[in-house]
Amino acid sequence: MKTVITVAELNRYLAARFKEDKILREVYVKGEISNFARHDKSRHLYFTLKDSDAAVKAQMPFYSADKLGFSPENGMSVIVTGYVEIYEKAGDYRLYCTDIVPDGIGKLSAAYEQLKNKLSHEGLFDAEKKKPLPPYPEKIGVITSEGAAALQDMIAVLRRRAPYISISLYKTAVQGATAAKNITEQIKIADESNEDLLILGRGGGSYEDLFPFSDETVVRAVAGTKTPIISAVGHETDNPLCDFAADLRAPTPSAAAELAVKDTVHILMNLENIRQNLYGICAGKISRYDDDLGKKESAIKALLPTARIARYSSEIEKREEFFRTKIAAKLSEKEYRLNLLMGKVDNLSPLKLLSRGYAITEKDGSVITSAKKLAAGDDIILIYSDGKRKARVLDD
Question: Are residue 194 and residue 211 in the same domain, yes or no?
Fold first, then answer.
């Protein structure tokens, strides 16, 4: 008689056989992710891994998912490491994942691209958010590891180009498991330390060595500084995400020091140009002020009483001369007329008549103009041109 078993017994049997199969205990399966979901409470990952011919359900526990460093997405081609077991309750088999690697690129590259796209969409790398570097910083904070060759290179360049500046070191690990946290802390400390400029730097290294500088917390700390910051991580071909968030990206730490400060010779040349410009400006202003002063002095002098008196004196002299001339002319004219009149008067003068033999008869002080006014015995005076004589009228 055939043995009849339950569904649960069947699934339990198959589950045991799956666990006994060494091949199924560790498999590497390549496929495309679809139906991806992350459980809100448990944080487990659930998805379907498929190719053009088949599909298999897959899941990953949160403790493995948290170690991935990137987020799987629908359509992503991956290679999954895991084991196959029967999910007894549903009677189907599943691929339980212990690791996921993007097909064609590594985990770090996938994490890098995902974070770059995310932060770029947030506007963290926008050009308008970049702060201008101070033209002549006096205090520079350098965030890097103590004793690193990159630090010595930066200090040498800074001292050569601008020996007057103050350099502060903010020591941090630049690689390893704690590097990202340490770098973030030192960026924040340096940003609160009243520096004029910050330089975040380290020398070259592998992609993995430089990856802490692409950590999200580090990138956000760089983008959030109040102090202008230069990123100088690795070599020119390296592009950690902090480069995109910084106010300026330098290809090397030495180049960052070159960009941070102007050469002393350049400063002196600028100062000389400024001096000459100021001299020219001052000379021009002094010349203009001197001209203005001369004009105002002339205007003031023109308003002074002495100037007005001088003008009036000159005017008086002119008028005096004018009146003198007029009076002289008038007097000359009057004198001429007087002479004419005097000539006429002289011609009419009684003396003139007397000189021709005539005489004037006076009686009692009055001139006798008629013989009828005289009577016999009247005493009279006869006036001649050269004197007087008394006489008496004898008879008619």
Answer: yes
